[in-house]
């Protein structure tokens, strides 16, 4: 297959759904940031890329663009700070030529903290404090500046907004006793305001994207992003690996999405800890939930319940066998004390026939969930049958030889 992007010509949405064992999928791919078969290793600003696909090996060596961290100094006055009170930040690489007035905003992902204990720990990491963030970040995949690796967005203004609030850029509260600031919404506003002042307000086209927790944030903030621009600006949103399902499995010993259910309940004020001590949603985020009763309020944080309310054109990119959801939601170690799912959870080649059948049921639920969404001509999706998570940020899954394909087609073929 020729080297091409799965979201080539992204302004022309299409609906593409994969079948099991689609060409280009990785056998036994590990979860986000834990991949072993396909990885980018950075040494002295040099990336050594090596991937294995069904016995075929593809190697390339190149130096990725390293982009410096910009702290948002005006954010302090607005109370827009990370969990530990430090300034939020982003990485910006300026566009040029035909992309000088086009902007791509990528919201960083990285899980959630769903209790005071986990948030206290998180503020000692790059996910909760800019003190620990990398001063320079490699721009690869959808953020690459090389036309041969990222033909659609290489010369756009490309931004990576760092994630340090622990709740998908949501919430507006604090816990003084634990010295925690839950200011995700304020960070979102401060980052957008700073970027608008640096030329984004003049954008002819703008794309809000994100991966994992950032993919969820891209959905939740999509319409807010649209309102930042005049009607003449073409605005769309892309959620990569953000389609976290709210669904109960028949096997009670494998609880579905326990982390997300707990986190969302606490965000909405219905968990063991009050909303004043864990992320409290702002009015702008709660608006998507309308007049939902309190016992259903947590559902507004699961994309399947809110994608129908998003007015701005939205594209969903997801693996039907999302490796994070399989490892952390479908069969987490805490729900599998005997280790029955241990091998399958880490490598699908080790799954038993009954486990494969169970995972195919997960795929079916995902496709059923987006069926109505796919009927809108304004929306689009690319759902492949890979064991993967976050495909836009990795060069091997974004634009490379043997990148994931569906019946030898990518989005622009459909």
UniProtKB/TrEMBL annotation:
Q: Which GO terms describe its biological process?
A: cell wall organization
> Subcellular location, in the record's words?
Secreted, Cell wall
| Full protein name | Pectin acetylesterase
**What is the protein's known function?**
Hydrolyzes acetyl esters in homogalacturonan regions of pectin. In type I primary cell wall, galacturonic acid residues of pectin can be acetylated at the O-2 and O-3 positions. Decreasing the degree of acetylation of pectin gels in vitro alters their physical properties.
Q: Is Zinc found in the keyword set? A: no
Q: Which GO terms describe its cellular component?
A: plant-type cell wall
**Keyword Metal-binding annotated:** no
Per the UniProt entry, the signal peptide is 1-24
A molecular function GO annotation: pectin acetylesterase activity
- Source organism, top-level taxon: Eukaryota
Enzyme class name: hydrolase
Q: Which family does it belong to?
A: Belongs to the pectinacetylesterase family.
Q: Which UniProt keywords apply?
A: Cell wall, Cell wall biogenesis/degradation, Hydrolase, Secreted, Signal
Q: What is its EC number?
A: 3.1.1.-
Instruction: List the source organism.
Output: Linum tenue
> What InterPro entries does the annotation carry?
PAE/NOTUM
């Amino acid at each position: 297959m020729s080297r091409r992007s799965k979201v080539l010509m992204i302004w022309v949405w299409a609906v593409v759904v994969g079948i099991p064992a689609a060409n280009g999928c990785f056998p036994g791919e590990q979860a986000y940031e834990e991949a072993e078969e396909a990885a980018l290793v950075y040494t002295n600003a040099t990336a050594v890329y090596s991937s294995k696909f069904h016995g075929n090996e593809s190697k390339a060596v190149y130096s990725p663009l390293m982009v410096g961290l910009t702290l948002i100094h005006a954010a302090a006055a607005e109370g827009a700070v990370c969990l530990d009170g430090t300034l939020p930040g982003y990485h910006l690489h300026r566009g040029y030529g035909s992309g000088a007035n086009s902007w791509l905003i990528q919201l960083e992902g990285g899980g959630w903290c769903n209790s005071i204990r986990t948030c206290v720990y998180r503020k000692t990491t790059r996910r909760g404090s800019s003190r620990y963030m990398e001063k320079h970040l490699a721009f690869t995949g959808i953020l690459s500046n090389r036309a041969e690796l990222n033909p659609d967005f290489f010369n756009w203004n490309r931004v990576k907004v760092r994630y340090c609030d622990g709740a998908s850029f949501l919430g507006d509260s604090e816990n003084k006793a634990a010295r925690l600031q839950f200011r995700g919404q304020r960070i979102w506003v401060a980052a957008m305001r700073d970027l608008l002042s640096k030329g984004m307000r003049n954008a002819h086209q703008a794309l809000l994207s994100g991966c994992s927790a950032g993919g969820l944030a891209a959905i939740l903030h999509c319409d807010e992003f649209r309102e930042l621009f005049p009607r003449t600006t073409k605005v769309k949103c892309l959620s990569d690996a953000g389609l976290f399902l709210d669904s109960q499995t028949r096997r009670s010993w494998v609880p579905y999405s326990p982390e997300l259910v707990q986190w969302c309940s606490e965000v909405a004020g219905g968990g063991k800890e009050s909303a004043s001590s864990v992320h409290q949603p702002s009015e702008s985020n709660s608006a998507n939930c309308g007049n939902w009763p309190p016992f259903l309020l947590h559902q507004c944080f699961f994309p399947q319940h809110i994608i129908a309310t998003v007015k701005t054109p939205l594209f969903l990119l997801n693996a039907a066998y999302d490796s994070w959801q399989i490892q952390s939601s479908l069969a987490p170690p805490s729900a599998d004390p005997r280790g029955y799912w241990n091998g399958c959870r880490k490598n699908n080649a080790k799954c038993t026939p009954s486990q494969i059948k169970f995972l195919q049921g997960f795929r079916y639920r995902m496709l059923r969930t987006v069926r109505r969404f796919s009927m809108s001509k304004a929306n689009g999706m690319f759902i492949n049958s890979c064991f993967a998570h976050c495909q836009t940020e990795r060069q091997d899954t974004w634009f490379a030889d043997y990148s994931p394909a569906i019946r030898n087609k990518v989005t622009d073929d459909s």
